[in-house]
Design a protein that fits this description.
Order of helices and strands: EEEEEEEEE
Shape: globular
Strand content: 35-45%
Oligomer: single chain
Number of domains: 1
Length: 73
């Protein structure tokens, strides 16, 4: 996986920060988006992020995932 790849959420992930479903549980399984960043360093220092893959689904919504939670399409 690399920045710019189209991906699909393959596992059931519940979030509470989706713009149209604020403060309500929303399942992301099956949603498609684009990888915008893979977090490997912060301010020039290497980090081990728990959720390193940042995916943008639309203009206002993005979320972070593990590698095993998304698949390239």
């Amino acid at each position: 996986m690399k920045v710019g790849d189209r991906v699909r959420v393959k596992e059931s992930i519940t979030v509470y920060h989706h713009p149209q479903h604020r403060k309500e549980p929303f399942d992301l399984k099956g949603m498609e988006g684009e990888i915008t960043a893979i977090i490997q360093e912060w301010q020039g220092r290497p980090v081990s992020a728990n959720l390193p893959i940042q995916v943008r689904f639309d203009k206002k919504f993005r979320s972070h995932f593990r590698e095993n939670e998304v698949e390239v399409i």
